[in-house]
Please model this.
Amino acid sequence: MSQPTKPRKLRKFNLRLAIGLTIVTILAAGSLILPFFTSVDPAAQGTYLKNLPPSAKHLLGTNALGQDIFWYLVFAVRNSLLLGVTVSIGITAISTFLGLSAGFIGGWYERVVVVFMDTFITIPVLPILIVLGAIVRGNTSFFVVAAILIVFGWAWNARTIRSMALTLREREFINMARFSGAGVMPIIGREIFPYVYAFMVVGFINTILFAINTEAALAVIGLSNVVIPTLGSIIFWALNYNAIMIGQPLWIIAPIVTTVALFLGLFLTSTGYNELFAERRGVA
Amino acid sequence: MSIYHRPIRIVVLLAFLLSLIAGCGAPAAGPAAPGEAPAPAAGAMTEVGTPRAETLIVQTFDGKTNAPDNMNPLMSGYAIWRGFRELAWGYLWEMDTATGKSYPELAAELPVVLNDEYTQFEIRLRPGVYWSDGVEFTANDVIFTLDTYFNNRDKLTYFGVPVITNYVKSYEKVDDYTLRVETVKPAYDFATTMGVYTWGSAFNIVPKHVFEKVEDLAAFKNEYPVTLGAYTLKSYDPNGQWHLWERRADWDRSATAPLGEPKAKYVFYKNFGDEQTRTLAFIKNEYDVDTFMSPDSIDAAKAQNPKVRTFADVFPYHDMNDACAYGIIINNLKAPLDKPEVRWALALSLDLQNVGINSMSGQFKGSALPMPDTQITRPAFFEPLQAWLNELTLPDGYKPYNPNFGADMVTRLTEMGVDPAQLPTGDAVTGNFGLGWWKADPAEAEKLMNSVGMTKGADGFYTLPDGSPWTLELVIPSDWNKVMQRVGFSIADSWTKAGFKVNARQVDNAEFTTVQNTNALLQVMVNWTTSCVFNTNFVNNWRTIRAENLKPADSNELITGNTPRIDNQFIFDKIAEAGAMDMSKPEFLEAGQEIIKEMITNMYYINMMNIPTTIPTNETYWTNFPKQDNAYAVPYTWWSSFKKILANIEPVTQ
Amino acid sequence: MKLAQYVVQRFIGYLLVLFIGITITFFLPRLMPGDPINNYISQVQARAGQSLSAEATQQLRDSLAELYGLQGDIFTQYRNYLARVVRLDFGPSFTYYPEPVSNILLDAMPWTAGLLITTTLLSWLIGNSIGLIAGYFNKRRWATVLEVVGIILYPIPYYILALVVILLFAYWIALFPLSPTFLPGPMTWNKAVSIIYNSFLPALTLILAGFGWNVLAMKALAVATKEDAYVQFARLKGTTDRTRMTNYVFRNAMLPQITALVLSLGFIFNGAIQTEVIFSYPGIGMTMRAAAGAGDYNLLYGAIILTIFSVATAALILDLIYPLFDPRIRLGG
Model:
């Protein structure tokens, strides 16, 4: 509002990003590196005595299945992150391609894409997933889960990117490029892509969250592969064994706190990046 | 939003997480101090406006129903599970679930056999039974029902209609209390087919004076049925969550009058939701009897509320005499499962003690024979076969049976820190944990596997004889049967550790039934249907194991009963032979023992444990439920036992 | 003219979305394993005193196919199905034969609709109001507090949120029932009160779940909008904080939030299904889950079509009233 805030603001944006990145880095690095220090399969049942309280040996105790809650969580964060990133790469690629091409090519091609976009946005996904789950259930390798999430997740991002492309289409420099005889693809690649890039980064981060949360929702109703540790499968097992009632609140609190922390990290990274980028654009 | 606010942010974050943790941790503290039950409120009313002290509240067996108004027992979707069978109806002959014996209910005595071929019977009815609207029940109702079955067999979808119309050849009324029936084939099971075979009856008698006025029987709802039992329907939830029954003023003229006066004036069936909310409601005395709550939740409820009781005070706490057992159905024709060595290797790789401890806190009763080990089957089959089991040797000389299974369980549980006072001693060890099971011996399993050319590959998993990787598909229920789901995952865990690459596939109810009945996708499956023995008549369950019912390994066609695809002429012959025997003769039981030996030698079916049916009770408002030390009936709130329970429970005087 | 074109375009889009949705709905369940006729027959055989003859089985099979509407090849079935859907006739339920699917759905629909409309509106209004205040006064401490609440609530999985709500308000502080009991009979004042009382916890869960994102999004929009020149200009004109916040910032920041609401309707419905299952709430979600479990596809796709229809229609209505708020479309500019 007043003049002196300006430099501080700049610093603050960096700080937001920095905190977000720190949280994400700790979780990602921890979950990627720690598994090399154990030879125990965290998902094997009855490895330890059941229901042990937290101790130096078992940081978060053991659960009703005789698994170490901490180590299960480490593997879960790793797998959930890997799934999130995989899905996010897929969705970002598809939605950017479809969104840009629809916005830029137009015509009946655009109309077809838009109808499918609207359909996938409008149809409530869970009923379809319930049906789909019954078909692929149990055989759900992680790739299948990822594929399902991509199929049902691309439309939102594609919609935003298309509307960005629509406004860009009419801009002066695009028209100039077109008149100077450049092909569609080079124009998209060279002239439009840089503008959409900022959104892609934010969209990418948000999609990771979408993937992790949707997988968790699927796991809770048993539609994902619950034998593999993920943030969702922990919750599935904890609920199945009624963890809260049987005096094992840590079994369920640990994944929730982790999920919230992961979200916080990704959220700060995403908004921080956005603001930083906006600032740079403003400066430029 | 300046950086100076950062500490605030962290404080808020922490405060919020703490309240979340408090929320999750709350039950540990509970509404009352631990060990102290919330006091029942005198003069309290239920949510449906009946005095709590006069109302027995029961968790529904079937959760929620979408057709709560359908009380027409001639149609498939009628609401049988919420009081219809136990409170509202009467049958010619009931079966005592505890003994497996039929007893007359609407009939005056067991069916009288009129010819040596066992095809002609006389049914004598008990006079003095009245429908709830005051009309007397007579042979006219029975004849009318049979007429209705035969005349409307194309329209009526109740499964009993095709059963009875293919079973009965002719019938005639002799007088108001007597009729005669001739069957198509010899019918040694007349009392259980025309009467009750434990879960219900194919022959649901309907009131002539009501149904004869109905034009479209298929569309008739019979919303508030005229009943034969001691209760009538007072009201119900159109959304299918609850049904409220009220005792008939003239209960002493009902079908169940001989059992005595039912003590609860009202019986309220309600779905209390999924297990989390059910546990909470149970602790708070919101209802009296639960069904299928998991052992861990029951332990938690007991710790919170001393009025919550299980069937027994020591391990395994629950009545383990269910008429069916969990086992593993194997597609015996599908390679490599067609080799007995592979099937035995699977049995010896299954560490049942671990499975039971991980999935059910060790609260189960093992059974090595292909049937449940109950008070009915133990003296008939289990005890006579113990010596044979002890001496059983595999072709390589290995003795697979472990008669110390129960004692081992006691040791394991003690090591886990279970209070020794909670563990059985003496004869109760085998009584509660079973007489024995197969040894957990992955080394012997590996020997067996290697003997048929299946060795472990580089990844530590068994390969097919040609060296290609092998994945064993195990079909298990999804969350519609949580206990079996847990058992299934634990089995997969056990086999994986022993070197089998297992894909545990959890499926919905409908798919489960299809897999079970076609067995085509199936390699192995956790199931119970192959092992149900309600009385000593094993033929009732195994009669479909016949050569005609065998389908090729990969066939998708419907299988009639022989789901494990057992292909064994000796077994076929013996079952056919036993089907024509008088079941009261010792030869009948001996034939059963021969069949069992043959099944075990080939390990056609890996039976594991009796279905651990849990029926915890909350004795704040009602006491004298059946318990191990007061076993006047089996504890189920369904089947005939509930009729007895209602006549024996006592209200707690406030 | 522009408005008419907008309405027509929206409507055609709406019909296409319905058509694609209905087609997917028809084919997906057909791929499901589980054959209702075989299941029924095997049930009969498993319990039959003596096995049925082959002719008797075939007879049973034919009559069931006719009853369930499963005759003919899959494309014949698809054509019949489209014709029936237009008449809102979904055939009989398999599990509760002969109860028509439309009856079961009609019983369930008011519950879901009542719960969802109320909670969606409340969650949107409360979330956006809080977001607006937090965004407008974004330098204040409590604004930060509100944002943090939003950040924490948003990622918590639905089931857990419901569980915590149950534990806190039905068990720990026993204000509300653990599981609902709805009384039958005509609607009276008492019955209405009892319905609200019994629906409170599911509603609270849904509001909390939708609330977090609304707060975060609105706050971000409000922060951006209040720096705009015209708001600054209004400030110089001497308008009060309150007027600027509602008349200037909110009116502009609201538009993307309405669009966001339209886009999230499908998501909201997903939440409703889970809520109903956890709270044993008698609605479409419970019906759908049970139908999927039992392989009752007539009921299942009846329920799915109804949800697609409802969500698409709600989106259409919001799109159609959008011009009321957005002068650019209304004025044809």
Notes: Chain B has 20 helices and 21 strands. The CA atoms of residues 311 and 319 of chain B lie 6 Å apart. The first helix of chain B runs from residue 6 to 29. The longest strand of chain B covers residues 168-175.
